[in-house]
Write a structure and sequence with these properties.
The protein is mainly beta and 380 residues long. It has a single domain, classed as Regulator of chromosome condensation 1/beta-lactamase-inhibitor protein II (Methylamine Dehydrogenase, Chain H, 7 Propeller), CATH 2.130.10.30. It is 5% helix and 45% strand. It is built from one helix and 28 strands. The chain has one helix spanning 3-22; strands at 36-41, 45-50, 55-59, 74-80, 84-89, 93-98, 103-107, 122-127, 134-139, 143-148, 153-158, 172-178, 185-190, 194-199, 204-210, 221-228, 235-240, 244-249, 254-258, 272-278, 283-288, 292-297, 302-306, 321-326, 333-339, 342-347, 352-356, 371-377. The strands form seven sheets. A four-stranded antiparallel beta sheet has the order 1-2-3-4. Strand 10 and strand 11 (153-158) form a beta hairpin. The two termini are 15 Å apart. 60% of the residues are buried.
């Protein structure tokens, strides 16, 4: 047994002991993944997928959003049974796709956001229909959207602001509803009350609430069905935050729009109703949260800006920033990152690091201590 592995096990043992003292439950026994390939964060919980297709969740669990069958917060990762390919954490619920193409959701279901035909809260994964062709999923505040392998797009949950893209015809749907008839949807992202998605032709479309300009279509108000963002056909990724949105283009440029009260658009400007370019042309991927943005560059560096009240910019302070601030000096960050009131990102060696708010143990270090710089998550 190597010195590094011995040290890691000792650190985990201490974390579990501290978690017990804090009232945070220890995880169920499961083999630790050698690498982490994907991460997602909600309001107060985190989930990650390992290179072995295992799924792990930790942090707040008041609505069963960890999927471990209970409602006890976890200060260190707990394994969720099954083999998984994708997962996304909403405000108080989580959804994930299994390797067999089935879709499962759990947690808060007050507005039908679990898609299981009910409004019953679930503390363990509940299957969404019987389809086995789901490709990706995005969980928002009270609604969820997902793509299928045939290029179709489906949404369910709360539709008060037309975030389901149904033309204003529904208020709540407890089962998936198809968005239009297009079979060219590539990715989808859900915010608080708006939705954006890219198509295979690299066009970008948004709908729902645009009271802060978060749809990027140049106006305030609402759109009850998908509206194209400009005319560009070079979009390759989009991420929706609370009331703002950011997206990357194929030329490695990054664009943000919507609410900017904390500088989350990366500039000292008022709200924006159309895409505003963030300085630089070397952006690889971005993740946005409630009022915070983080993005990795093509050189492997990681940068954050916007709201920093909980240290979610990871720059060692709690000072809000209206321009990108670099996280340390590492150049080994990947495009796998997520941010809310806490943030997490994966490095090229497959390790996972988190920072920011930790009131429910969502950083996975066995404590509830807020961190203003990244701390490594250790899996038992």
């Amino acid at each position: 047994m190597s010195k590094h592995r011995t040290s890691s096990l000792w650190m985990v043992a201490v974390a579990v002991m501290v978690a017990g003292l804090l009232g945070l439950a220890a995880p169920a026994s499961a083999a630790a993944p050698a690498t982490i390939t994907a991460v997602t964060v909600g309001w107060g919980h985190t989930c990650a997928i390992g290179g072995d297709a295992s799924l792990w969740c930790w942090g707040s669990n008041s609505s069963g959003q960890l999927g471990d069958g209970g409602t006890t917060a976890r200060g260190v990762p707990v394994a969720i049974a099954g083999a998984w390919t994708a997962a996304d954490a909403g405000t108080g619920h989580t959804c994930a796709v299994r390797t067999d193409g089935s879709l499962w959701c759990w947690g808060n279901n007050f507005r039908g956001q679990l898609g299981d035909g009910t409004t019953t809260t679930r503390t363990a994964p509940a299957r969404v229909g019987d389809v086995t062709t789901w490709a990706s999923v995005s969980a928002g505040d009270n609604h969820t959207c997902a793509t299928r392998t045939d290029g179709s797009l489906w949404c369910w949950g709360f539709d008060r602001h037309s975030q389901l893209g149904q033309g204003g015809s529904v208020y709540v749907s407890t089962v998936p509803l198809r968005v239009g008839t297009a079979t060219s949807w590539a990715t989808v992202t859900t915010g608080f009350a708006h939705t954006c998605a890219t198509r295979t032709d690299r066009t970008l479309w948004c709908w729902g609430d645009s009271s802060s300009g978060q749809l990027g279509i140049g106006t305030l108000g609402y759109r009850t069905s998908p509206a194209q963002v400009g005319t560009a056909a070079t979009w390759n990724g989009v991420t929706a935050g609370y009331t703002f949105t950011c997206a990357t283009r194929t030329d490695a440029s990054l664009w943000c729009w919507g609410e900017n009260g904390y500088g989350q658009l990366g500039a000292n400007v008022p709200y924006q109703t159309a895409p505003l370019q963030v300085t630089g042309n070397t952006w690889a991927a971005a993740g946005v949260g409630f009022d915070t943005t983080c993005a990795s560059r093509t050189d492997g560096s990681l940068w954050c800006w916007g709201h920093n009240g909980q240290g979610q910019l990871a720059d060692g302070t709690t000072t809000h920033r209206n321009a990108p601030a670099r996280i340390g000096t590492a150049t080994t960050w990947t495009t796998a990152l997520a941010v809310g009131y806490h943030g997490c990102a994966i490095r090229t060696d497959g390790t996972l690091w988190c920072w920011g708010n930790n009131g429910s143990g969502q950083l996975g270090d066995g404590t509830t201590v807020r961190r203003t710089t990244p701390v490594q998550v250790t899996f038992l």
